[in-house]
Design brief:
The structure holds two protein chains of two kinds. By secondary structure, chain A is α+β, with helices and mostly antiparallel strands. Chain A contains 21 helices and 28 strands. Chain A is 30% helix and 23% strand. In chain A, strand 23 and strand 24 form a beta hairpin. Chain B has two domains: 76 residues, Beta-grasp domain (Ubiquitin-like (UB roll)); 73 residues, DNA polymerase, domain 1, CATH 1.10.150. The chains are: A alpha+beta, B alpha+beta. At the A-B interface, helix 1 and helix 19 of A face helix 2, helix 3, helix 4 and helix 5 of B.
Amino acid sequence: MTVTENAADKEIGRDRRRKEDARLITGRTRWTDNITLPGMLHLAMVRSPFAHANITSIDTAAAKQAVGVVAVYSGADLADFQGACINAWAVTTDQVTPPHLPMASGRVAFAGEVVAVVVARSAAEAHDAVELVEVEYDELPAALDLKEAAENKVLAHPDLGTNVTAVWVFDSAEAGTGSDVDAAIETARADGILIEREYREQRLIPSFMEPRSVVVDPTGEQITVWSATQVPHILRFAIAATTGVPESKVRVIAPDVGGGFGGKLQQTPEEMLTFAVARRLGKPVKYTETRSESLMVGHHGRDQWQRLTLSATKEGRVTGLKVDLLANMGAYVAIVGGGIPVLGAFMYNAIYKFPAYRFTTRNILTNLPWTDAYRGAGRPEATFAIERLMDELANEVGVDPLEIRELNWIKHEEFPFTTVAGLEYDSGNYEAATAKAKDLFGYDELRAEQKRRRESNDPVQLGIGVSTFTEMCGLAPSRLLGQLNYGAGGWENASIRMLATGKVEVITGTSAHGQGHETAFSQIVADRLGVPFEDVEVLHGDTQISPRGLDTYGSRSLVVGGEALVRAADKVIEKAKPIAAHLLEASVDDLEFTDGRFGVRGTDQGMALTEIATAVFTAHDLPDGVESSIDAEATYDPVNFSYPHGTHLCAAEVDTETGRVSLLKYACVDDVGVIINPLIVSGQVHGGLVQGIAQALWEEAVYDDAGTLVSGTFTDYLLPTAADTISFDVGHTTSPSTTNSLGTKGVGEAGTIASTPAVVNAIVDALRPWGVHDIQMPCTPARVWSAIQNGAAK
Amino acid sequence: MTRISLTVDGMNVSDDVEPRMLLVQYLREKLGKTGTVVGCDTSNCGACTVHLNGESVKSCNVLAVQADGAEVRTIEGLAEDGRLHPVQEAFRECHGLQCGYCTPGMIMQSIDLLRDNPNPSEEEIRQGLEGNLCRCTGYHNIVRAVQHASGQLTGAEGGSK
């Protein structure tokens, strides 16, 4: 049975308005911070102002006397009680992993680390008393600069003896997926083109709109944790694994969650401390971070130096790529922090056929906040690097950037294609996506306009940025994760409950926080079971309701979770079939299931699936030996990733007198396989685009020389506003994925991955006549203006 | 403590509040109006936007005592007799929200914007929403939603491209 064809009456492919919206547009929401329980206490954190220091004393006496204060704890008070923050991915067997306690005791390793907690009757009283906790520190030298830290000049954790947590290497010659990259480089040096560059992936802050919040109620037999998290199942596991509280005694609920972008896939110190304090006091406790805390200590993203060598023939055919990364882990290796550069390792060859490839990442500890997944997680970094290099190569050869890409990319007829990084790309059509994008963009007209402005010496120049990309989505095949030494699997679970009234409950182990699963999953089930869209209720984000799941990140929910759902639906049909045959007095072999109904072939007799649900409820007349349930559960482990791709084109105006960059037009064509809900997919693309554009132009976590976050509020950390952005032209081509039955590929990260290099390529393209070949991100007016001055001076 | 009396979503309320209590804290903590949310502490994000005597304000930027005698309207008081306000309807129709956290503030600000300028250009919409941050939508469909609510987009065009 396939449901890939989009008949007019099918749900898949329809622009369904979202079910979620009814509550979100009326304020009828369940954010964690909304929760108020009888006797609930409030937690506030005392945080280190220093990046690296020994704690010499903590005096809590005055704080304990303050009005409304119930308790004040330091790290020593909760030492055996607080659990630990886990690192789930030791990327090498000898990874150096500093122990990470939720609350520091003895020494702090970054500014913002918790040194004491205050519990009070109200949040205001808790925050007031934080000011009364006297902490004395002896400052230590701090490892703040990534390159210096890599040389172990100052140690982030002196007892470890090194800042290098892991060195992870992929070499195509060793892996047998390609030839020797050094040989390719030497050949190109002698008689070809060699492009050597160093790019900076600045530190970014995910900046979800809902600050993180956690409420823990220890008063029941199970301890209930509400958290603004992407990963309720993983959090439950981590709490149990590190506190000794049996997993069966912990229930985690992710109610409405206001965005994540990777930033909420952490097991956080704040969650662990709230859990510890609630257990200690036997009362419900709430902690909600301020935005300043969120920007300061919620995990950050990117923060890498990329040293790159690309070798090519004189005609521009790439012969090899060598990548040397420095990846800033921050002070602790976060839950999958060490794995982010490793995820990127598989994507530097992108959509191209490179014969030789070597990737090395050195993961470095510093006295800065930890880094981990941020929308794209490794793949934006890889895509940025290669798409910048391909533009440099096109410039060297003297051809259009799209031409150089076409010369090197995998042709449509070559799929499935095994890459130099060892992945098997299932499907794609780069030619079609690029042709459509050019059309949507008006490529030739804009090139003509660019020429006009160059020839007339227009102070406002036009640049055209090209970015193609692919990504690995649908994390992830469990076996592969095992080979990469990851601590968990990549399967997903779904179950379907057929209610006696004909309604359908769908339970998914994925955990949406804005993606619209309730709508898209309803569409899938409605088609598969032939029930009305409105009759399907999708439940998620509560370990009691969805006991098995691995949550939402890495564009996995639809690709992996959706496939689990399809399989559960098929099991429902299979379970219902013998009952239908019995009730219809027909042979099972004579039944066919279409549009929600079992029909007896060659007759007009039949019975709806929902009628069978009722028959199972009464159970008055079931065949012998058949259980009175047609509910079903399925767990699906993907055999491969899916590989969405796309071509993005950006036209940017650069004011050469001020360095100001403005977007003129942005068109993209993404091939995300079969689309369940085009409305939702476009929304994901739009949002992703702006996040990627923001990396190119505005956002950066900036620190002073002492390791204090300077961009610590939304006044200083420049999240784009509506006035900074433009409307987008979004199109699609469809190459169904062959790795799942729905043919879907995932879309959550696509826009973010492709847009950053598209924008920077546009700026550099505008300024080539000034001799500008690179501008470090974010491309602020000051940086652009300086690049013009420096270029012109050469 | 200071006594304040005001109208919130058509209901008369009167409470003793600390002078430092913000209007948003009063709405959420005293009245249980949790539809209005807090997204920052520097009045940048606009998630807490409500109407105070008919004008949009960031309720984290107003003390509860300043609202004494005022009429406050929140996202929870927009729909009448179960019928959504046209701007609420437009946000749903045009997929102008994803996680929904910024949405209450975004809708309240959009209503204010359309009252001042019933037929805004795209540029005017973008300028008018500059004080409200959204991290999910890239603003594309929020702009469409405001255009839709102003009657500038109809039918299928009202949805997202």
